[in-house]
């Protein structure tokens, strides 16, 4: 069972402030380095596509980013369930939606906050910016203005205009409802539905559900004034009137009696346990208000264990949230260059989501959520991180769009389209998630050796708050408290377990252990006592050796070679013990491992073969099928060089060992990584670009990694210490707190022998 994730206000603010304020950057997709690039991208070259588009507007989809660019536009009048916060204060939500577009469906997106509550001014602004975008996602605009705005923009624009809070929410709610009804064994035509919140989301949800078969006479809609009944005059508008019920019911409380379904798109706490208690058997409760639901699942289940409960939040089962819809609806719509997102596309999306939830869930997804995901009361809708969404939902949307004639460019090869969607998403994100999932499943007690460093403390706090396991911080209580307090994280102090020589009951055992290990290598009792009680690396290693933690992370404050030397007082993690360092470089959706980055200074050919084996193991741990290249400055013996000889010989050693992965060498890095360069050597045994590079020495490893990090901005994970039994990871002195957290996650992933 996983630990529930916690986030504090300080966590949320820090997330939005670091590494740079906000949540995304804009980066170019073409080279802009030479005079020629400048001439092509800008004057004079840019004139050519301009004229082409002037002649044929559809050419904008070929020569500009229009076809994959969606604007998230708001005026901030209904920001989540927080109310009218205004344009500026809504920006974090809109930036967030833009990031979700990119992360989940590779749709480029930009947020636009318009400072007006006048629908005409809003419509005009959006209409005028139409040429820039392939689609418009309207967000968090309050009802009833949102209905007028969307309707007019749909009429006046030739690209999809989609109010996410209306239709995104309705689609996901419908998908969840299809499955909830299957579980409760009820039919949509028969059920009594109460919907609370007669705004953007509420009106759209009820319309879609009625179009799916719900009976008008079985549906009661409520707002802040209670039931919307025929003849009511207060707080009404034409959209509410369309759903006014012929009924004597006047309050939500009355309406909830014997209702089968409650749909909440209103506000925090709008529903009481008593209301839930009065519902029919197997009630369905979708409390979708954000960030806080109408009633929490705990409260609902306390009075009705038979309830099927969903919320809009990611920290409870059954997240009915439009994040499952808008990325994929737009992906499908953009891919057929749609003029609109119509009802058929929305319904296709709802069915694709509902169907997916009834399929078997891949282990990696279940692991990421730390619980069994199997169609049932606690799993009626796919989870947002389900990697199948990207290739299941957009094809369904695109097909419905093509069938109804809204696409400018139909997809001819649907199988090829699905394959392109599978390949489209950044595999590195997937890899990071799966490591995370494995770590979460282990719930390892992680020893953070350097409690006097704020990066380490942040990583330790995040480790614990992310539900990965327990963080054990080695340090002085007063120092840790002061450091956390100095960065506004004082509340985290009580959450961490601080361990040191003064408060452990095991110090004597640690000293004895160390004395036995070191007595024949020039250390007397006094040396040993000092090392055990004063050196935090040694102390932490002793904790690990005694099973007082499951993994150890250190190295953020001292050079890794020095730290490794200290750890070797307790463990045997030297080159001759088989230890190897492997560093993962992540860049532009690609992952390449470089090794040995930590232990062997000048490996010989036998060592290199061992290093390759360790590199291949790490690749498999990360979910990659290893393709190992021994890299040098020569390729297959040319130019002949004494220095490259060991790289030439190492593959032969590996061949004799009979390993079960692809390897080749020696070769230059371009031949290893670039299929075109590799094609000049058709005899190569690599079936594709290498993903593990074995380098000749530690200096070349260090240079390669740091060059990639500094020049290209690659994400670096490692060096991952492997080849030893213990779960130890050594960070670097320039590690950020998220690097340290990644190392802790890697340490946590290691299986216990
Ligand atoms: N899970 C999800 O994916 C989504 C959830 N939502 C959530 O739905 C809620 C509404 O959003 P949206 O439709 O965009 O906002 P709107 O401002 O358009 O509509 C809000 C509606 O809720 C009603 N309302 C507010 N408070 C209460 C209450 N205590 N009891 C009864 N009715 C109430 C308002 O009543 P009145 O008309 O009388 O003012 C209004 O009809 C928000 O909490 C939002 O976070 C929205 C979109 C997606
Ligand atoms: C999820 C969403 O769009 C909302 O709560 O407004
Ligand atoms: Mg919204």
Secondary structure layout:
Elements lengths: L8 H9 L17 H7 L5 H9 L4 H4 L5 E6 L11 H4 L1 H15 L2 E6 L5 H10 L6 E4 L6 H12 L4 E3 H21 L8 E4 L3 H12 L7 E5 L2 E2 L10 H4 L10 H5 L4 E4 L8 H5 L6 E4 L9 H7 L4 E4 L14 H10 L7 H15 L5 H6 L20 H15 L10 H11 L2 H16 L3 E3 L5 H12 L5 E4 L2 H10 L10 E3 L7 H12 L6 H10 L1 H10 L5 E4 L5 H8 L12 E8 L2 E6 L9 H17 L5 E5 L13 H13 L4 E6 L1 H5 L1 H4 L13 E3 L3 H15 L2 E8 L5 E3 L6 H13 L4
Helix pairs in contact: 6-15, 7-8, 9-10, 9-16, 15-18, 16-18, 18-19, 20-32, 21-32, 23-24, 24-25, 27-28
The chain binds NADPH dihydro-nicotinamide-adenine-dinucleotide phosphate, pyruvic acid and magnesium ion (MG).
The site of NADPH dihydro-nicotinamide-adenine-dinucleotide phosphate has 30 residues, from helix 9, helix 10 and strand 6.
For this entry, what is the oligomeric state of its chains? single chain
Number of helical stretches of at least 4 residues: 32
Strand content bin: 5-15%
Strand order of the largest sheet: 7-6-5-8-9-10
**What would the principal axes of the Cα set say about the shape?**
globular
Alpha-beta content class: alpha/beta
- How much helicity do the residues have? 40-55%
- Mean pLDDT over all positions: 94
Which fold does the CATH topology of the largest domain refer to?
Answer: Rossmann fold
- CATH level 1 class label of the largest domain: Alpha Beta
Family: In the C-terminal section; belongs to the phosphate acetyltransferase and butyryltransferase family. In the N-terminal section; belongs to the malic enzymes family.
Domain Cyclic nucleotide-binding: 469-505
GO molecular function: acyltransferase activity; malic enzyme activity; metal ion binding; NAD binding; oxidoreductase activity, acting on the CH-OH group of donors, NAD or NADP as acceptor
Binding site for a divalent metal cation: 139-140, 165, 290
